[in-house]
Amino acid sequence: MTVEGIACDWEVKSITSKASIMAWGKQATGPMPLEAIHYLINLAVTKQKNILIGAKTSNFVYVTKEFFQANPLGIKEADVKDDVLGFFSLILTYAKSAPKLEQAGALKALSSIMPRTNFLMMYKLVQSGLKPYLKKQGDLYTLVKYLACWENDYDHDEKKLHTVAVSHGFCKLQNGKMVPTEEIFRDEMKFTYKFKGAKSENVSIKDWIDNLQALEKDSLEEDLDTWMWAQFGGLEQKTEYVVGTQRPVPIFEFRDLGSSTAATMEKDVKEIENAFLELHKKFKTAPTAFTKWWKRAVGGEVFTGIGGHMERREA
């Protein structure tokens, strides 16, 4: 196998079967726009295929403009951009999967698309599209609760995705609109993980979302996964650019992509690379304007950044 610019001279020792028949688990890590993540989740919930969609898709929540039909915080359906929808799709995918964490064994096991950049940076990348509506601390959590009133219902016969009200008692119909009740995401509803021989670590959904709005931290990364695998959001606020642009986007790990053999590995790697390039081309331009980039010189070096993100650039 040949990888441009890299000497692939590694070897695996003490194998128990012929190298030609060994199966290698596939996963891919790279930068991806949030609206591309939104697109991939749509493919997953409508049972369509893409090489970057892994085997675990049951927890995905595909947030559409229809989730905003109650105009939460005054946000109209037409006001919402696809990168914001991608952000909230990830938020609700993990929030609604919180009760499954103990059984799953890790945050990374809740979804086949795992953020390597943390949610704090993702929020910074879309916050300009939300800021006019978030008047006070706690409003982001209120918005998430409203969005949680809706879920996806895919009709296999019609091959059509419907947005429907949740079937449990978390929300109620009020003045013709679905609104959250006191039951939804109760303050005690947490991501909880029990460690062998140690106390439980937990993060409430409310604290997680409130800390994002306050631009303080991603609690799932800092207060929970750091004690587990240190992979979920483990690159913290690191971003990379969309190919051929200066647009920073989060980094994701696409997991559970099947397996490769020695005979298929080169083909599989090229297909995955092409999938990244196609999505970078398709979603080249950001739907939501970013916070203005800053630039300053420190000790003869030039630094640029957005929010808490900083990169060194040659002067």
UniProtKB/TrEMBL annotation:
Reading the lineage from the top rank, the first entry is Eukaryota
By what name is this protein known?
A: Uncharacterized protein
Query: Which species expresses this protein natively?
Result: Cytospora leucostoma
